Amino acid sequence: MNGVPLLVALLLVGIIARSNLIATAACVLLIIKFTNLHFIFSLLEKRGLEIGLLFLLLAILVPVASGKVTEKELVSTFTSLPGILAILGGALATHLNGEGLRLLQIDPEMIFGLLIGSMIGIVFLNGVPVGPLMAAGLTALFLETIRLFK
Fold first, then answer.
1. 137-143-149-150 Cα dihedral, nearest 10 degrees
2. Distance separating alpha carbons of residues 25 and 7, to the nearest angstrom
3. CB burial class (10 A; 0-12, 13-18, 19+) of residue 41?
């Protein structure tokens, strides 16, 4: 079956690297594939990123909704150096994510290198795998930098 060996490999790598997210994603895709619910693939391809970002934003905004973050603390975002740097960091990260998305649309097989890099980061650098898009954005930045020096 097309794609099954790669998904099984990702499942194994996710288990070995103790990345529940990658292992779970590979399992879900294998289940979809084996149950012939192939229409879900196009739905995930078109809207999966938006759904994932929605849940990420919901998790990040819970402190605001629960009242753990006050209006006064939010105002300090615009008036303090750490807050201003957070705004700049958010703008740069968003730009890089967009570049990463474009890179993955042009060269989708690159995702495997990004996932292996994420595994290395998890296992050896005690990292947290929150963003293939950010990894792709950094890759796009590296590629553009190399192009400048050629």
1. -160
2. 9
3. middle
Q: Is the pTM of this model over 0.70?
A: no
Residue at 131: amino acid letter: G
Mean predicted confidence (pLDDT) in 78-92: 89
Give the DSSP letter of residue 150: -
Provide mean pLDDT across the span 97-113: 86
Section 123-147 average pLDDT? 84
17 SS3 class: coil
Three-state secondary-structure class, residue 23: helix
CA distances from 65 to 25, 53, 72 (A): 29, 17, 15
C-alpha span between 87 and 28 (Å, rounded) = 35
| Contact criterion met (CB below 8 Å) for 97 and 131 | yes
Residue corresponding to tokens 């595994």: 119
Residue 35 pLDDT exceeds 90: yes
**Residue type for 115, please?**
L
